[in-house]
Amino acid sequence: MSETTTSEESKAITFEMTVTPSEELLGGLFTTALEGGINYWASVSVYRWHGLPESEYHAVIHEPMADGLEHRITIETFRAGLRNIVTNQTKYNVGEGADVAKLAVGLLTDEEYDYDAGDADNILQAGLFKELVYG
């Protein structure tokens, strides 16, 4: 019986996939994060979404633990968060990365993928800070 040897290079699986997140998904992440996902680390002073197309959703949040630092949030913040996660540009605590990456890939490839306020918070932080600062 002959044995096949495999180099480390041939063990790797590399692929590229281009996905455009729907405005509905981004809008859902926006409202979910702002209506409960971030309330343990941020306060919301401006929150506009009702009656607007998702592309015009916007909010202003403040970080009380960072001397009230102000951030403007749009659905583009969530698009950046998903991008930062799937392109491995987000720093995680040990053990968090696999779950957050699985969530991002699931959201981008399955319109029915379920998420909650904590998930939306993680995506917002990935878009805003490129790391999970809180949580």
Question: Which terms would index this structure?
Answer:
135 residues; alpha+beta; 3-stranded antiparallel beta sheet; globular
Low-confidence stretches: none
The fraction of residues in strands falls at 5-15%
Spatial sequence of strands, sheet with the most strands: 1-2-3
- DSSP strand count: 3
What value does the average pLDDT take?
86
List SSEs in N-to-C order.
HHEEEHHH
Description:
This protein is an alpha+beta fold and 135 residues long. It has one domain (22-129). The protein is built from five helices and three strands, in the order ααβββααα. It has a three-stranded antiparallel β-sheet. A hairpin with a 5-residue loop joins β2 (58-63) and β3. α2 crosses α3 (75-86), α2 packs across α5 and α3 packs across α5 (117-129). The longest helix is centred in the first third of the chain and has 15 residues, at 23-37. The mean pLDDT is 86.
Summarize the helices and strands and which ones pair or pack.
Layout: H1 8-11, H2 23-37, E1 43-48, E2 58-63, E3 69-74, H3 75-86, H4 96-109, H5 117-129
Antiparallel strand pairs: 1-2, 2-3
Helix pairs in contact: 2-3, 2-5, 3-5
Please outline what is shown here.
The chain has 135 residues and is α+β, with helices and mostly antiparallel strands. The protein contains 5 helices and 3 strands.
